[in-house]
Specification:
This protein is mostly helical and 196 residues long. It has 6 helices and 2 strands. 70% of the residues lie in helices and 2% in strands.
Length: 196
């Protein structure tokens, strides 16, 4: 323990004040590590916040499309499906692009391998509360999106099943309980060969 007694004893409060004093007049913002964040990091941080807000917004819009799609299919407005699919695909592409941008920003901020919970531990208290709120909103929108997507898929699967039953009845194509076609019993062989 001799090495601890070597050299001057540093007063942590004085050292902090000295560092703060040398940074006055510069473009610095509060940060967790040393109390200040340089302008470049502040710009990156603000861009990261914008991306999180944009991700939340696009997730909300895709969830709305899924909700509208579920309603249209349940009302048998199948002609609207193509429009919903196009809007959904455009939203998903935008979501992927935003997420790639979020990953790049997180890397530049030193958060590339961190979860949202871990990021909250890396920021100061003021930033933490705001980020926590943004992350919670994003999580809620993503959960809504998943719920509406699953509901829309279930309704579409029911409609497909109904369509298959209708086709079976009208064409006389023999299916067994596992929905397998027996071509040797099929009187409409050309239809079976072409579509099944």
């Amino acid at each position: 323990m001799k090495w601890m007694n070597q050299g001057p004893v540093i007063n942590m409060e004085e050292d902090r004040e000295k560092r703060i004093g040398t940074k006055k007049g510069m473009d610095w913002e509060p940060d967790k590590d040393n109390g200040f964040m340089d302008k470049n990091r502040q710009v990156l941080y603000e861009s990261f916040l914008d991306i999180i807000r944009d991700l939340t917004d696009i997730a909300h819009k895709i969830a709305q499309v899924e909700e509208e799609k579920a309603a249209a299919v349940s009302l048998k407005h199948h002609e609207l499906l193509e429009g919903f699919m196009k809007r959904e695909q455009a939203g998903i592409l935008k979501l992927r692009g935003l997420d790639q941008h979020r990953i790049r920003l997180a890397k530049r901020l030193g958060w590339d391998s961190l979860t949202f919970s871990q990021i909250l531990e890396e920021v100061n208290l003021g930033q933490k509360e705001y980020l926590k709120m943004l992350f919670r909103e994003l999580e809620q929108e993503l959960m809504q999106l998943i719920q509406w997507k699953e509901l829309a898929e279930r309704i579409i699967n029911v409609r497909i099943y109904e369509l298959l039953i209708t086709v079976e009845r009208k064409t006389g194509i023999p299916y067994d309980n596992t929905r397998t076609v027996h071509l040797d019993e099929c009187s409409y062989v050309n239809l079976c060969d072409r579509y099944i």
